[in-house]
Design goal:
- The protein has 170 residues and is an alpha+beta fold.
- The protein has one domain: Nuclear Transport Factor 2, Chain: A, CATH 3.10.450.
- 29% of the residues lie in helices and 43% in strands.
- The chain contains 4 helices and 6 strands; from the N terminus they run H-H-E-H-E-H-E-E-E-E.
- The chain has a 6-stranded mixed sheet with strand order 2-1-6-5-4-3.
- Strand 4 and strand 5 form a beta hairpin.
- The radius of gyration is 18 Å and the shape is globular.
C-alpha cells in the first residue's frame, strides 16, 4: 500500500471513529442519570478538552468547561433524584467531516433535542455542533466541542395517549 493510500485509509477510519464517538456521546446524554454515565461521557473527551456553548443564550446558560474533569463536573450537575429529564432524545443530521491542512479532524452537525423535565414542561432545541477530534491513547476523542443555539422553544408535551395510526391487517 502506498503512503498516500495508507493516509487516505487512516483518514476514513478516523472519520468513522468520530461518528461513533459523537453517537456514543448523544446516547449517553439521553440517559444522563448516574455518575457512571458521567464518567463514560468524560472518557469521550481528551484530557485537555474544551466543551463550550457559543453565542446566546448558550454562552451564558451552558458556559465553557476546560478539561475532562470540568466537563464531567458540568455533566454531573444533571444527575439528580428524581431525574432532571423524564425524556431526552438527541437527533443528529447534516453531517460534515473534514480534515484541515494540518490533518486535524473537524465535524459539524445539526442537532435536534427533545426533552421533557421532571419539574414539568417540555422543550425542543436545535443547535449547530462543531467538534475537533483527536486520537488519545488510540481512541478517537472530542478535543473541542462547541454548541450554538439555532432555536429553542417550549412545547406542550411529547407523548400522547392517542392510538398510533397503523393500517388494519384485514
Amino acid at each position: 500500500m502506498s503512503p498516500q493510500d495508507a493516509l487516505r485509509l487512516q483518514q476514513l477510519e478516523d472519520q468513522q471513529a468520530a461518528r461513533v464517538c459523537i453517537s456514543n456521546y448523544m446516547r449517553l446524554c439521553d440517559r444522563l442519570d448516574n455518575m457512571a454515565t458521567v464518567q463514560a461521557i468524560g472518557a469521550l473527551f481528551s484530557a485537555d478538552a474544551c466543551w463550550e456553548g457559543v453565542g446566546e443564550p448558550y454562552a451564558t446558560r451552558l458556559g465553557r468547561h476546560q478539561g475532562r474533569e470540568a466537563i464531567e463536573a458540568m455533566m454531573a450537575g444533571y444527575v439528580r433524584h428524581p431525574a432532571h429529564f423524564t425524556l431526552n432524545g438527541h437527533f443528529l443530521c447534516s453531517e460534515a467531516l473534514y480534515q484541515d491542512a494540518d490533518g486535524e479532524l473537524h465535524g459539524r452537525w445539526l442537532m435536534l433535542q427533545t426533552s421533557a423535565f421532571t419539574a414539568g414542561g417540555a422543550h425542543l432545541n436545535a443547535a449547530e455542533l462543531q467538534i475537533i477530534f483527536r486520537r488519545e491513547a488510540g481512541e478517537m476523542t472530542m478535543h473541542h466541542f462547541t454548541t450554538r443555539n439555532l432555536f429553542s422553544r417550549p412545547v406542550s408535551h411529547w407523548q400522547a395517549a392517542d392510538a398510533l395510526p397503523v393500517p388494519d391487517n384485514k
